[in-house]
# Entry
Amino acid sequence: MTDGRADILIIGAGAVGLSAAVFLTSRFGFEGRVVVVDRDPQGARSQTVRSAASLRQQFSIAENIRLSREGLALMEDLKARHGAEGDIGFREGRYLVLCDAEDRDALARAVALQRMEGAATLFLDEGGLQDRFGWLRADGLCGSLGQGGEGWFDPWRLLSVLKREAVSAGATILGGAVRQLDIEAGRVTGALFEDGTRIAAGLTILCAGCHTPQLLERAGQRIAVEPVKRSVFSLATPDPVPEMPLVALPSGVWVRPEGAGYIAGWSPPDGDDPASDPDDDAPDTLLFEDRLWPLLAERIPAFERLKMTGAWAGHYDMNRIDQNALLGAVPWREGLLFACGFSGHGVQHALPMGRALAELALYGGFRSLDLSRLSPSRPEALTETGII
Ligand SMILES: Cc1cc2nc3c(=O)[nH]c(=O)nc-3n(C[C@H](O)[C@H](O)[C@H](O)COP(=O)(O)OP(=O)(O)OC[C@H]3O[C@@H](n4cnc5c(N)ncnc54)[C@H](O)[C@@H]3O)c2cc1C
# Structure
């Protein structure tokens, strides 16, 4: 890094930061100097590339449903703009969200909201589940099933398409680890890097994923977001389940097809989910044998002969209050916007989130999608009742 200046400095070249850079420079035509900094601009240390890169329309908050629908439309638009080079490999594959009888009403309400928002989700009771999915042990369960516009994609390709568009529209992407935000008279004026250099900025946009809370805390501000580790397991089986959707079990286990096999993970119940070191990327392989496999095989007997073929780990930027993103200005610091707290659903929302940050930066308000309920100073929790 060398000292420098930017009109807009974006910290973090994950999907959210790069999307903000694309909207500022390429789509909205901002002509000032936009600099994106990342401690690893190749993306290898981003949560974006550690994610399961899956997109669903099954949320219980209208904003999240809209973000997913817009996210998908903006992914399709990348292909329309850039042809084969803009293809991020989106593959249709439905979500099947399962719950116990006690959560039936909450699930039915979420399905009604999704349908109102234009997502054709179906509600299925135990009989409906058993009729459709012979491989599922459905006793005591009900579920919701997406009918289109859900699936998964290649997060590496997403980063590379965004990077290419941002750079060709004039953004500068630099390597450098931010130590702290610079603050003068209560205003954020740029960033100080680990090597002692600085970038001065008119506006700073902080999109450092699960490192954002730490950088805010060094600026004297706490938010209720913590890094929590999530391991993902690659699985093979001699008894594959044909055309299986992404299945989310009430236990917090999820599994979906990936290539010729599957990937799976587990979100433990709250209270059993401690904060972790965001730089500890060792997967918790014991978790597979001890918890995940028994929970999976209990509901999908064909998975009794599963074999783990690989594993990786990343960290959710978990909003401990309501598991939803915080997006916008920091009321107590001028010159700063941030987005974090995605709690495991940020990569599917990254494109409209970046667009929203660019709108706040250039126009001072939302133009495309009103996301004011995600304000960092929201008075009420926006708690999701679905999967996290
Ligand atoms: C195992 C797992 C599975 C997931 N599955 C899904 C899924 O299926 N669907 C979904 O929508 N979401 C999923 N997520 C969540 C998703 O990955 C994140 O919400 C999303 O990637 C956040 O993007 P981001 O750009 O905010 O952060 P990141 O992608 O983490 O980017 C932040 C960038 O900031 C950089 N950075 C951090 N600190 C500094 C610093 N001090 N100086 C400079 N640079 C810094 C990092 O190097 C990184 O490149 C999953 C997450 C995990 C861990």
Notes: The radius of gyration is 21 Å.
